[in-house]
Amino acid sequence: MKPFTKRLFSPVALILSASVLWTVPSRAQILVEANFSGGNGTSSVDQFQGTAGGGWANAWGFTGVDYSASVVSGDPMDGDYLSITRPSTATTTASLTRTIDNGVLDTAANHVVSFSLRLDALPSAQTLSIGGYSLGATSAWNWLIIGDSARWAFYNGLTIVNVTGVTPQAGHTYDFTVNVNMVDKQWTASVQDGGSSYTSGVLGFRNTVAVNDQRLLFSVANGSAQALDLSIDSVSYSAVPEPNVTALLIGGLVVLVGSGKSRQMRQSQGETRRHGV
Fold first, then answer.
1. pTM higher than 0.90 for the full model?
2. Given a cut of 90, is residue 256 above it in pLDDT?
3. Contact between residue 173 and residue 193 where contact means Cβ atoms under 8 Å apart
């Protein structure tokens, strides 16, 4: 009988162990989130407008005055969500923003921004901008998504890349995921509406000297007199998980299996020579 340690660490046993570990993916760590589960108010973090805490530096804030927002429950977003209205009589740009505390986002590591958005009244011109904003001496958009009645689009630097296969439609909910690479000043994004999806290639920041990605901004109307109703939910910033150590283990197993096969072949050849075959 083989010693227990040899049986335990045989290539086959390690492969089986690795296959079990491989089925358990690394989970992203949520750094900040907003699900609007607290309803309307200013006493807790997950209300609207809410208060500072949980990684957020402040409550949700407005710039511009032609804007109304309130947390409502039920359809279309399944639970509590933020409903935003901008009337057609509005003539100024209005933005909804929230800022993340210093140190929450590691500027030397990637992070993921995700949110769900429903268009409840469709604009006829470019009226909706969503993006991450760098604060400080270099305050500007890092990543930027725009939408109108004809398209969703992502910015690659200062160039617009149109989304294909997923078009804005009133009453549809869109799930966006943005992968942000602060080191290389790059990002990728995907959008899906439950039936269709689109994933971008690597895109460049608009702000090539960005030092952080601390502010999330929803900007509505760009000064045009158009109505726009939308709903927002499931906002989160997450740290990108470290590579699963199982990947390293698999790499080692390839070497082990290879060396095991070589050893078996040498042993077989030795047996053949000893028996004069």
1. no
2. no
3. yes
Confidence of residue 276 (pLDDT cuts 50, 70, 90): low
Placement of tokens 């039936």 in the chain: 195
Provide the token pair at 195.
Answer: 């039936």
Q: What is the DSSP letter of 65?
A: S
Class of residue 15 by CB neighbours under 10 A (exposed 0-12, middle 13-18, buried 19+): middle
Helix (H, G, I), strand (E, B) or coil at 166: coil
Per the CB < 8 A criterion, the answer to whether 127 and 93 are in contact is no
The token duo for 206 is 């608009």
Rg of the chain taking only CA atoms, in angstroms = 26
- Going by C-beta distance under 8 Å and a sequence separation of 6 or more, which residues neighbour residue 56? 32, 34, 45, 50, 98, 99, 100, 101
Q: Show the domains of the chain with their CATH numbers.
A: 26-239 (2.60.120.200)
Structure tokens at 235: 């906002």
**Nearest residue to 261 (alpha-carbon basis) of 38, 55, 82, 11:** 11
Mean pLDDT, to the nearest integer, of 160-184? 95
Contact (Cβ atoms closer than 8 angstroms) between residue 203 and residue 220: no
Where are any strands of DSSP class E within the chain?
29-34, 40-41, 48-49, 61-63, 68-72, 81-86, 94-99, 111-121, 128-134, 140-147, 152-156, 159-162, 173-181, 186-192, 197-199, 203-204, 215-220, 228-239
Residue 102 CA, distance from chain mean position: 19
How far is 57 from 100, CA to CA, in rounded Å? 5
| For residue 13, pLDDT beyond 60 | no
Residues in the chain: 277
